[in-house]
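Annotators were shown the component list below and the corresponding predicted structure, then asked to write short factual statements about the assembly.
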Amino acid sequence: MTEPTGRRERKKAQTRQSLADAALKLFLERGYDQVGVKDVADVADVSVTTLFKHFSGKEALVFDQDDDLEAALVAAVRDRTPGQSIPQALREHILLKQTQFAVHATDPRFTDFTRLVQETPALRDYAHRMWTRHEAALTRAIAEAVGAPEDDVSCAALARFALEARSLILRHAEPRQAADEAFALLEHGWAASHPGN
Amino acid sequence: MTEPTGRRERKKAQTRQSLADAALKLFLERGYDQVGVKDVADVADVSVTTLFKHFSGKEALVFDQDDDLEAALVAAVRDRTPGQSIPQALREHILLKQTQFAVHATDPRFTDFTRLVQETPALRDYAHRMWTRHEAALTRAIAEAVGAPEDDVSCAALARFALEARSLILRHAEPRQAADEAFALLEHGWAASHPGN
DNA sequence: TGTGAAAGTTTAGTCGTTGCGCTTATTTAG
DNA sequence: CTAAATAAGCGCAACGACTAAACTTTCACA
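Structure shown to annotators:
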């Protein structure tokens, strides 16, 4: 079970890993815009076309694909502890995801990586896109949780605002406090129109 | 005063207009991605180099630059009618801007243009970027209006959420109703932490 | 063992975008 | 009125991200 794959898939995974490693290394050394996609391919010792068979674009090189991110988001709303409001559940979920990463804060590579992403427009935008990708799913989950129609505007607004709150929190030194302040707006506003959720 | 410019500036404005017209025409006919920047330049009868001297990129071809958009946003907060809350003022401002455009709703070109922008990812993203460009300025304006520190998180959150609300409103058939529902969240939440603003 | 799918390569190309050196037209100053 | 300064516009060559096509190698599996 530890090695369920054949030699072929292992080699493929290895190539992918080589590319990701090379990319991160070069981007941290020289900066994202100062590194060409060819440079990455050269260091990983593959052709440029191969690089694009593994990654959808230059920005994707530094992000591990979280496939079940959407499911976790929906579950955070659906399976929230009774008595907890939806904004509270979302705040907790986002903070949890954040502190999961922050566990590695001792690793200097982690803080460097974060700085790289936040200081590179292309990467910042890409990360934001990947995160807000699931707005529609979250909107549906919220609407279902409160028995509202699927296209209810206040549900869509809560979903959008909660997802947007993440980058507000991310750029602050005190994530917990920032989350509390940003979500206070949503909690009070939500309670006013959807009491008990 | 009606003609304060020389022949030079007039010609420049004319080529710029030719480019914008050609771009909109071609984009509407064939779709944004099916039109190359060279096609636009050819129809406008200028070189590609000249096109990029007038517009910062392909997406900018279809947007008139609103230079005082930021000032208007800040003014909407600073000069709001007494007794009106900041979220209310922002909602009105956004709705006003929207209906200013909607005046041209009789013009079939307007609805076509809107569809083009909303259905083309590159244009949708660009428009969103141009709009959210002024988040920092809006945050400062709000903070100043309530006497909070410049980097207050709840002010930043209100600014971000209010700006994000626009695209929520934009894609809905009933802008007024959508704005009311989306901003209800912000008004109640804001009132709870900043009573009287 | 051999066959076919999948990884990888090479080559050539598209498309947006920029830099360079040049011509041409307009403005400004002498 | 003329000459120098200014700016628009041009063609061309290039760069970087990305794709298509045709081909070779390698491994899994029947």
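Statements collected:
1. The CA atoms of residues 59 and 122 of chain A lie 7 Å apart.
2. The interface with chain B takes residues 152-154, 156-158, 160-161, 164-165, 168, 172, 177-178, 181-182, 184-193 of chain A (CB under 8 Å).
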